[in-house]
Amino acid sequence: MPKKNKIFVTQPTLPDLKELIPYLEDIWQSKRLTNNGKYHQLFEKKLAEYLNVKYVSLFTNGTLALVTALQTLRITGEVITTPFSFVATANSLIWNNLKPVFVDIEPVYCNIDPEKMEAAITQQTTAILAVHVYGNPCNVKRIQEIADTYGLKVIYDAAHTFNNKLNGTSILNYGDLSILSFHATKPFNTMEGGAIISHDEKTKKRIDYLKNFGFADEVTVMAPGINSKMNEMQAALGLLQLKHYEEYIAKRKAISDLYRKELNSVKGIEMIPEHEGVSNYNYPYFPVLVDEKMYGKTRDKLYEDLKNKGIYGRRYFYPLISQFSTYRGLNSSKAENLPTAEQITKRVICLPIYPDLDNNNQSQIINLIKQFAL
Ligand SMILES: *Cc1c(COP(=O)(O)O)cnc(C)c1O
After folding, report:
1. What is the pTM assigned to this prediction?
2. Distance from residue 228's CA to the centre of ligand 1 (Å)
3. Across residues 116-145, what is the average pLDDT?
4. Does domain 245-372 bear CATH number 2.30.30.110?
């Protein structure tokens, strides 16, 4: 098999290195490398303005933001969550000694199904940890109603979103807290990075103590906090990425539009519909669902055949979190509890999408998917 020209599911987007150099010179000269430095402060401010949210707390990555969000709200006992996500979602519960209780997903956007939540709530349940999968919002209204009825906190793992809006409002304004990831593979990256979005000053303060060992002042440690601070280089890169974000998204949109147009006629390849009321969508992934009978091939065969041609799609999310060794012993992990997630995880493949994916390469991917069909 020719090895040339491998195409991966994503490729990080970076500004011109020349743009970063003045920032680096300034950081080197200042000797201020971390601990709420100048660029950290500026990036938090600019980001809150850009995203139209009240408070941003920057983190060294999204996973530690998740772990800290749970500590911020003093979550205990059991937490309702989804098996259809990146493993960090549930791992953040284990790191807090919490018990994940998996609830099935709905079949359209693959988000946690609020109609199945109530049956999973017990006396020990204190929170819902939901994920806006592929950047499409969960049923935030219904989730809040359930949370209000049962007195639960709501945390959104919004790692797949960024500036996405629902009916004109940032998706990040829903729930008690939302977390973002700025990992290299996400549409907005600071190499590694993340944030917690909060809605009041007291909570923002608590988050900022917890990410800095628990220091409230020089002599007061309010809790056993962790060190998950973003450094000045990450923050400077974030400021630059913000300037280019809209160009990046316009390119992602063009790629998504072409996939939709060309794959629409391929029998057995289903696409997730565009979500009503969503604007500023960030096109983080391009998932398709393979219908084995209609397409004439399983998802895994399509995945292998593409790989043999140098195209590396990713099966996000396969396996389900509930199938990993840490989780598979839980009652809520049983396949009969998660019928929709069990179906989707066998059918989904994410196709390459990133701003620098060139047109010839994308056409090649599309043509192969057409050729491989029945
Ligand atoms: C990427 C991702 C995370 C983890 O973020 P990191 O910044 O890589 O730690 C958490 N949850 C979801 C759904 C993700 O996609």
Report:
1. 0.98
2. 15
3. 98
4. no
